[in-house]
Amino acid sequence: MPKAFVPVGGSPMLIRAVDGLIASGVLDRIVIMVPIEMIDAARQLLAHRAQAASPVPVDVVRGGAERTDSVRAGLAAATDATHVLVHDAARALTPPALISRVVDELDAGQPAVVPGIPVTDTIKSVTAAGDVTGTPDRSVLRAIQTPQGFEAGLLRAAYATDLPATDDAGLVEAFGATVRVVPGDPLAFKITDQLDLRLANSLLTDVQVPG
């Protein structure tokens, strides 16, 4: 099944991510992008959690084959937005306070804001053969998380280009915008493999999280 529907602590990642966004108290609307075959399943999950009674409207729209296609679909569904956040459901334990930090910086006038945490491992750049070509100073490196926040017009303009990027912040950076990094949180890690899933389930027995 799509990763967003995998349960963590008894609730799908999608629901935990949505609950965290709502709990932040700083959003006006949430748009969920899912594969077309999962739209009904997503709506049923949200209905079972009584999200319709939430003060934040939650809509489900068709995503795309690639992440960029899904973000474009989300932007198309939020035409009246002045600021947007792009979030990964797989970061299901993201604390509401982190979401608020991103929005606070947007409200203060920053055009693009991302959460990040210091890199603790030594990082090496290598050739295709595996030979080391350099060792960056890790004190100036950050591992970037989500949600990533943007002026909506800026993100739309960046997506209208063919600039290469690995994430939305990289895209607007390549477009020429300044990206501000705010403190992230270890709980906002991305649940990618079985080890991550075990960690998330274990943390839910010790940490108070939404849902």
Question: What does this entry look like structurally?
Answer:
With 211 residues, the chain is an alpha+beta fold. It has 7 helices and 11 strands. It has helices spanning 13-23, 39-48, 67-77, 96-107, 152-159, 168-175, 194-203; strands spanning 7-8, 11-12, 30-34, 58-62, 83-86, 112-118, 125-126, 132-134, 142-144, 148-151, 180-183. Helix 2 (39-48) links the parallel strand 3 (30-34) and strand 4. Helix 5 (152-159) packs across helix 6 (168-175). The longest helix is centred in the middle third of the chain and has 12 residues, at 96-107. It starts with 6 loop residues before the first strand and ends in an 8-residue tail after the last helix.
Write out key terms for the chains shown.
19% strand, 5-stranded mixed sheet, 33% helix
Q: Counting H and I runs of at least 4 residues, what is the number of helices?
A: 7
Please summarize the sheet with the most strands.
5 strands, mixed
pLDDT < 50 runs, ≥5 residues: none
Distance between termini?
21 Å
Question: In percent, how helical is the residue content?
Answer: 25-40%
Overall average pLDDT: 93
Radius of gyration: 18 Å
Secondary-structure element order, as H and E? EEHEHEHEHEEEEEHHEH
Q: Which percent band covers the strand fraction?
A: 15-25%
Beta strands, count = 11
- Secondary structural class: alpha+beta
User: What global shape is seen?
Assistant: globular
